[in-house]
Write the structure tokens for this entry.
Amino acid sequence: MATEEETRGGFGQVSQLRGAAFRYVALAASLFGIVMLAALLANAVFDAFGLDAASGSWYLAYAVGAGLPALVVAAYGYRNRAAGAVSLRTLAILVVGTFVALGLAVMFVIFDAQAWFVYYTFAVLPATATFVYARSREDARAPFLATGVLVAGAVAGTVVWNVLFTYPVDWTIYLWTFVVPAAAAVATLYRRRTGSGWRRAALAGLGVVVGGGVVGFTLQATGLLDPGVGIFLYLTPVLPAVVYARDVLVGREGRAGLLAPVVLAAGVAVGWLLAGAIGATGPESWLDWQFLTSPPSQTPTQAGLYPAIVGSVFVIVIVAVVSFVLGVGAAVYLEEYAPSSGPLGWLTRLIRINISNLAGVPSVVYGLLGLAVFVNLLGLGFGTVVVAGFTLSLLILPIVIISAQEAIRSVPSDQRQASLGMGATRWQTIRNVVLPRSLPGVLTGTILSLSRAIGETAPLLMIGAPNTVFSPPTGLASRVSVMPLQVFHWAFAAQEDFRVGVAAAGVVTLLVVLLAMNSMAILLRNRYQRSA
Amino acid sequence: MSGDATGADLTGSRGLQRIREGTYGTVFFVFAVLTVLTTVAILLTLLVDALGFFSGYSPIAFLTGTEWSPVIRPVSFGVLPLVFGTLVVTVTSGLIAIPIGVLTAIYLSEFATVRTRSILKPLLEILAGVPTVVYGWFALVYITPALRRTIFPGISTFNVLSASIVVGIMIVPMVSSISEDAMSAVPDSLREAGYGLGATKFSVSVGIVVPAAISGIVSSFILALSRAIGETMAVTVAMGLQPRLPTVQSATVAGLSVPYVNPADVFLQPGQTMTSAMVQIAQGDLSGGSIAYDSLFAIGLTLFVITLAMNVVSDYVTERYREEY
């Protein structure tokens, strides 16, 4: 940089020390917050999984059994870059897929699998089939036909739901509603990739279904794992990994990388055997399946987050619908309709200034608004799902509007001009050009705002939401607790097991949900940036 | 695209078309106006209930009273201890976040490679994305015990210091991202002029870029502090629920009696902010009409006015002192 050049000439010496010191101080400052947070998170994970209960020999067993193979894999991947990339991608598919599988499993703890079976069979499947068929015939009415079928199917499904009382086992429902469509997707993909005939593709699809059936049957017979969870694990981590492995094997580059998960899994198994052999005490995890599926309790080991998870889902669905419709509508008005002069132009300027100021209003104040308007004025009840949903929608509305405005603004104006020049009206231009082009950006902004709404606590305390409820909400008018409220409650508990262990499990669950939402938003954004 | 492009619209009735166009425009306009209505509703609810409070309790006693006890009789609604608590947290977290945030912004805008930036920026965004109740829990369960083990053995379980530290961490991204935007907007010609005169990278960063971006940097400070003032859950969890003013002691220096406040009395002890006082009242009785309920809105109004004023000042600073390039 400039400093090196100056020291050479006859202009005297300039010390590089100050600049270098400043540079490193600035770097340290940038890392400070990140490192602090990482340390705190590491502590929380440590407590959530109860790792302090584990003995030294347990760590040693796993270090030898699992750590050494991991080091070998890392070293090999570093030297052989292609294999390294393949192994990273395989691991990513497996990890993300496992999270998706667990998420699906939790969803079906919350929602009834049998109702899903009925509505899928009568509404979702026929509607999708109609849409795909109409599209393949290039029939312009595809969306309308599909919507019609969906509505009719929903009505039929409701009738059936009320008269049908015997249902297949849950895992066969998942096989029918998830694995069969996945098999169809695999078959299509297979045909497209290999250019082979329908027969071989159908065979591949059939293989996928049979594989799922085998997994389900084996698990049901042996009782090793819940067959439903097994089906989800087969569906989201295993199936994509197999498809990816096939691509790599055909491509012949970095094939050794595919062995990485096998080596790592074998390492963990060796660690497990070693720990068992020397009789080491393992960790006592607070965060387990029981924690996710039980209500809160007086006893730390039986306490769970289930009603709060369901509450968060209920609230967030309302927030998503309300804030998306209102936010995108307002953004479309501000970007596409709003005049810049006249009395309406003045009002538009007022709206813009107002939105940026609303974004800075503290969240407790929104809670007071909810308390005064939704609870006391409209009488919607203390801390009910609908009040919580509306209050949080108002809270994130300014952020949704601002991000939607940016996404809409980024649509090139020549595309608008082209559409208008073809004789389309303003609304047709918006619906066919502006909204489809800006949708990924709008979705990214909405998801990020929703992840803020999931973590909000203060406004919910203001509207009288209970910290702890023992049963999940059953409708819009039930009182609701959400994940952060439950964590808030545990943080003040007298017992250390609650304050540290159980609360840590709650914090980790909440953060995993947030991380999943944010990575979804970032994935969307990256795809969008690449295509734009 | 979908169906409409293939036809139908040319033959469609113009009258119906116009009605449909008008309807969509109006509906979206109503959505946009809804945001203004939100502000009006906030102001109205705060004002109405705060007026109810001030008709039963003197505003002067509210603003100058030194004791806050909304529930325990005799009730007393002096807001000063709460204002003091808020002020201490805001200033302390600002002292942490402002230098770190500005240095981060300088590093990201002037020193970091494209690759480093692409890693650091999302990581910093995570700092702002962690729920505040989680920050409060971190402070209570990890930071306070760590401080007790190392520097301050006498620190109380709930204390101002650890709350301020986490609030500081959470507002760092606010300072850094807005400041960095301002610094990135400084044209390269200014930097090159600096290098042409023989300045070092350090002198260019600190002597040219920072002054040129000062309006954005200052407005980032104001926004971050305004966020710290409105911050609720971290302080509620970590700082405790005891409204208190420090006791003023006096020392005799050279025959003169000098009043002072022991910092340990401020930082290592519990306190209460305006926001956490609101949470405390809300945890009790929320059925309208009582004076405690109305006091909620009086504090809310105070908070709203302060944060609104800070946002307006920040906008003004950005507009007024912006360097046009």
About this structure: Chain A is about 80% helix and 0% strand. The mean pLDDT of chain A is 85. Residues 1-48 of chain A form one domain. The radius of gyration of chain A is 28 Å.
